[in-house]
């Protein structure tokens, strides 16, 4: 059985980075860009389950999330609540290149927000790590959940490409 995803929480080092999720209609997949987009790509490693992949840079920062489960299969919850983040944070992933537990994938009635639930035992604290992205951490330092908000439909990656152009930065190593 895969181990829980270990993370470390630090105070933020600057303004809240951009973040936005785009549901790719032709691929039936959600792509969520975290932070500014860079060339060359700062990709270093990943964590993945059957339907969820986290791309991480060399410093352990999350830079991209892909959910390959079609949204028609997301579990709809009528009482879905958005996180009430009390703090902004810089969160670093401590694990690399490994298989993770398959999260429970839940959405609101409009399918404009999505939660990936991992660890439910113990207390949690939710942090906002970018615009539209919240990570909950349990008391053991494991990822409890990831919530993405303001998801939008995208055809042929046009909206994602436009978002990346607007948020181009010189380096992905912040």
Offer a quick outline of the entry.
The protein has 174 residues and is mainly beta.
Task: Walk me through the structure.
There is one protein chain. Helix content is 5%, strand content 45%. It has one helix at residues 158-166; strands at 7-10, 19-24, 29-34, 37-38, 43-48, 52-57, 62-67, 75-76, 87-88, 90-93, 98-99, 104-107, 114-117, 124-130, 133-138, 143-148, 152-154, 168-169. The strands form 4 sheets. It has a 7-stranded mixed sheet with strand order 11-5-6-7-3-2-17, with helices on one face. Strands 8-12-13-16-15-14-9 form a 7-stranded mixed sheet, with no helix packed on it.
Low-confidence stretches: none
Mean pLDDT: 90
The proportion of residues forming helix, as a percent range, comes to under 10%
Measured by DSSP, the beta-strand proportion falls in 35-45%
| Cα-to-Cα separation, first versus last residue | 33 Å
Indicate the radius of gyration in whole angstroms: 15 Å
Order of helices and strands: EEEEEEEEEEEEEEEEEHE
**Number of E-state strands:** 18
Shape: globular
What topology emerges from the helices and strands here?
Layout: E1 7-10, E2 19-24, E3 29-34, E4 37-38, E5 43-48, E6 52-57, E7 62-67, E8 75-76, E9 87-88, E10 90-93, E11 98-99, E12 104-107, E13 114-117, E14 124-130, E15 133-138, E16 143-148, E17 152-154, H1 158-166, E18 168-169
Parallel strand pairs: 2-17, 4-18, 5-11, 8-12, 9-14
Antiparallel strand pairs: 1-10, 2-3, 3-7, 5-6, 6-7, 12-13, 13-16, 14-15, 15-16
Identify the notable features of this structure and list them briefly.
seven-stranded mixed β-sheet; mainly beta; single chain; globular; 18 strands; 174 residues
